[in-house]
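User: My collaborator sent over this chain with a note saying "see what the structure looks like." That's all I know about it. Can you take a look?
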Amino acid sequence: MLILPLHKPLNLSTLPLVTVLLVLINIYVFFAWQAGDEQKVQAAQDWYQQSGLAEYELPAYEKHLRMTAQGDALAELESIPAGQRGRYVGMATLSDVAFQRALESGGLFGSEDEQAAWAPLRREYQAQLDQVFTLRHILRSSEWSPRRLLSAAFLHGSVMHLLGNMLFLVVLGLLLEGALGGWRFLGLYLLGAMGSSVASVLWRWGEVGGGLGASGAIAAVMGAFCVVWGMRPVRFFYWFGVIFDYVRAPAIWLLPLWLGWEVFNLLTNDEAGIGFDAHAGGLICGALLGGMLVLGRQTREDYMADDTEVAVDDQRWEQAQYYMGRLENAAAERVLSALAVEQPQRLDIALARYRVAANAGNSAEMRARAADVLRLDADDASALAAQRGIVKQLLADGGVAELAQPAFERCLKAGWLQEAEAVWEQATQLSGEAQAQGWLRLALRHGEAHAHEQRRRLLELLQQRFGTTPQAGKARFLLENE
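Assistant: Without extra context I'll predict from the sequence alone. Here is the result:
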C-alpha cells in the first residue's frame, strides 16, 4: 500500500530548507560515515573465528539460550552445521545486549581460567567492533540509550533504504515545514525520531536485535501532517496492488489509514524485518506533537490556505492526469485545453498538452504545443529541464526550424548556449538581418559568460555569412577593439 500526499509543487518559493538539510545529513552519514562498515564487520567476524574466540563463546551462547528459555533461537542454532555455528554466533550476538552482559558477569564459563583466557580475546574483538560506525549508533533492543534513540534515525541499511526514506521526507517535509516553519519542523522531526525509537524499544524489550533508519522520524512527520492540515482537502496519490489514482480528501483521514496499516503489519507481519513498531510509534508521537502545535497556534495558516480554494481547477487537473494515465489522449486534451484558456501562464498545463500530443503521435500538434511551452517562464529546475528536453528533442527530430525563434529565446534566457547555437543554425527561413541579429546576441551572451573564444568565433561567423548587414559592422568593431 502506498498513500503519498502530492499537494504542492516543489519549486524555489516552496523549497523546504530544513528538509533539504536533513536529506543531505542522512546522505552524508550513509556515504561518508557508514561507508566500509560491512567490510569492517566481515573482518571482525574472520578474526572472531581465527582467534579462537568463537570456541569460547559458542558453548557460552548455548548455555545463555537455555538459561533464558530462548527455545526457538536454540533450535535455530542447532539446525546449523557444526562448523558454521561459530560464525553464526558472532553475527547473531552483535546487538545482543543481554548476552554481552551475561558474558561479562562470568556466569557462562566453566572455570575462572576459561574466563581469563576469553577476556583478552573479547577485548580485542570489541575494539574491532567499536570501529564500526553503524554498530556504535544503532538502536539496540532491550537497552535504554538516549544517544542511540536519536542517532539510529540517521542510519540506513542500504542505498534503496536511504532513497525510499528520503523520497517520503521530501514530499512530506514540503507540506509540513511550510505549515510550521523551519525551526518548529526540525524540533518535531527530532522529537519524533526519539519518540519512535522509544516505542520500538518498549515494544521489543526482552528481544534481541537492532533498528535503524529515518522511517520512524518520517512517520512522526506523517502523523503531524495529518493533524496540522486537519480537515483541509489535500491531493494525494494512492496505490493498492494494480489500483492507483489521484484523489482529494481531508488530510486527517490519512491518519487512521496509515496507523491502521502499520498496526496491522505489526501484529500479523512482524517477521518482515521492517520497523512497524517504530512507524506506529512515530505516527502517534507526531500526531500528538502536531496537535500541541495546532492548539498553541504555531501553524502558518496562509501556507495551507493557498490550495483550499481551487478545488474545481484541481479536480479538472486530476481528471486530465487520469485520462493521460489511461492514454485517453482526446479526453485529456479537451480538459487541458479548457484549463489553458483560463490559465494561459501555467507551464504544467502547457507541458501536459505537449505530452498528450506526443502520446498521440501528432507531430503538428506537438510543435504547436512545444511553442506554447517554450514561450512560458519556468520557475523551478524540473520545469527548466522539461523545456530543455523539448528543445533537444526538436533538434534530434529536425523539427526546430519553424520554432527557431521561441526555442532560441528560451535557450538564451536559460543560458543553454550550446543548444541556442544549434537552434539558430536551423533558422534559415528568417531574413538575413534577423539571423545576423541572433548570432550577435549569442556572441554577446558568450562574452557575458567569459567564453571569449566562442564569442570571437561567432563574431567572425557573423562577418562571413552576413557581411552586408548592420550587425556585421558591429561584429567588426567588437573584434577590432578586443
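A starting point for your reply to your collaborator: Strands lie at 2-5, 139-140, 210-211, 233-240, 243-250.
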